Amino acid sequence: MNSVTNLTSDSLPCSNSSYDQLCIQNVTNGFEDNERDCQCFNPCNESIYEKSVSYKQWPNDVMAKYLANQVCKNNSTLCDSLWNLSNSNPDELRMNFLKLNIFFQDLNFEERSDQANYEFTTLLSDIGGSIGLWIGLSILSLFEIVDLLLRLVYKVLTRKCDVTQK
Q1: Are 5 and 43 in the same domain?
Q2: Which of 99, 115, 129, 161 gives the lowest tally of CB atoms within 10 Å of its CB?
């Protein structure tokens, strides 16, 4: 069992073409040893080609005879067997020809990128905003308390003056 344990943080995933194979081998070995800790990077570029297969009966009788003529021009040994097939069983002749078209199913591409969901600068900004809010509320509350105390003192002093005058 080959184990790859010398993957350093200095190695960039895009600079080494065998990095993916090393990562796959490392993960496979980890699963075999019941260790599932993988630090594999997402691939930088990845091309995925999906296939689909479709078919139809080809060629028709006229085209089959034309193709048999073309084969007879190039290869006389196959000519006799093809003519025998076309005369005896046209379906058998169809089964000896193949037309293959390969093309793109979609000409679209999809680009995906990884981004941090909550960056460190956003965290610092939110902490600073919260601290500012609490400091602002604390100062406002302090002024409210001072205002309340001054009003109470004023009330007490004006009440004493009113009592002494009566």
Answers
A1: yes
A2: 115
Q: What is the pTM of this model?
A: 0.34
Amino acid residing at 95: M
Same-domain check for residues 65 and 90: yes
Q: Evaluate whether residue 162 is within a structural domain.
A: no
pLDDT tens digit sequence for 7-65: 444 444 454 557 777 877 877 777 777 766 556 677 777 777 777 788 788 888 788 77
Are 43 and 65 members of one domain? no
Query: End of a domain among 70, 94, 118?
Result: 94
Residues, the chain:
166
CA–CA dist 37, 45 (Å, integer): 23
Alpha helices in the chain (DSSP H): 19-32, 61-74, 76-88, 90-94, 120-165
